[in-house]
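Course assignment 3, question 2. Fill in each field.
Student: A.L.
Task: Predict the tertiary structure for the chain below.
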Amino acid sequence: MPELPEVEVVRRGLEPRTVGRTITALELLDPRIIRRQHGGEDRLRAALVGSRLTAVARRGKFLWWRLADADGAETGEALMGHLGMSGQLRMSTPGALPAPAVTGSEGPASDPLRHRRLSLHLDDGARVDLVDQRLFGGLWTSPLLEAADGALAGVGSPDALLPEGAAHIARDLLDPAADLPAIARALRGRRSAVKTLLLNQEIVSGIGNIYADEALWAARTRYDTPGTALSQRRALAILRAAREVMERALEVGGTSFDALYVNVDGRSGYFARSLSAYGREGEPCPRCGSTMRRVMHGGRSSHYCPRCQRRR
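Answer field:
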C-alpha cells in the first residue's frame, strides 16, 4: 500500500499539472471506484465537470483537490482520493511518450489500460487517470469543514478547511502543525503494541507497515512493546525516527517493491534499496550483524532485529 511518502510524491506530481486547470469531462469506466460517492455518478459529474482545481492537498494517505466554479468562487467541496492497496494517479499528455516499464518488480504490474477505472479530462488536453488493480482506492466529493485546531488542513492546503471525509484522520509527521509531544503522550496512554499504535490513523496518520518497521528499528524498540511501557523520550524518538525515514524516502520518490506503486509519470521510487528492517528477514542487521527476523503480529509482518530490539 502506498504510505505517506508515496502519496506525497503523487501530490507533488499533480500540483503543477492540475492546479488552475478546469475539468472538461469525467470518464467513468468502473462504477466501483466511486462507491463512496453520495448520489453516485450523476452527483460526481455535476460537481466536477466545469469546475476548476485550485489546490491539491494531503493529510496522511488522503489526497484532495479544492474545487471552484468557472468564476473562481470556491464551491465548498473537495474531490477526495485514496489510493488503497494498489491505486495510482497517472498523468497523460497528448503526444507524450509512455514512461519506461518498472523493472525488477516483485509483484504484478498494474496495467494502465486494463486497470484504468476513471479519468478526469482537463482543459489543456491532459488527463488524470485513476488506475487501480485491486479496487480498494477511489475518488469522491466531500464538503469542507474547519479543522478542529484551526491550523492549515494539510500539506498543500491554503487554509484550515478540511474535507469531511478526512476529519477523523490525525495529522501526519510531515505536517508542520503536527504536535509531536502530544502524539507521544497519546502513544503512551494506550496498552496496545507500539506498532499497532503507529498504524492507527486516528493517532498519527500516514504510517504503514514499511515505515513503522523502519522507525522502530531506528529507535531500537521492539514491535510489541506496549505503549504504556514507553517513556516520553522513547516515544518521541520513535516519532522522530519515523519522520526522518519518511523524509529520506520522499527524496528518492518513495518505496516501490513492485509496479503497483509508481508516481504520476509511471516511474518507481528507489527507497527500497535503503531499507534497514522491512523485507530483510534472514539478512544481517545493518547495525549489529544479527540475523533479522520476521513475525506475524496483528495480521501483518513485522521485521526486527532480536539483538537491537530486545523485549523490555
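Instructor remarks: Residues 97-109 have pLDDT under 50 and may be disordered. Helices lie at 4-18, 40-48, 180-188, 194-198, 209-218, 232-251.
Grade: pending
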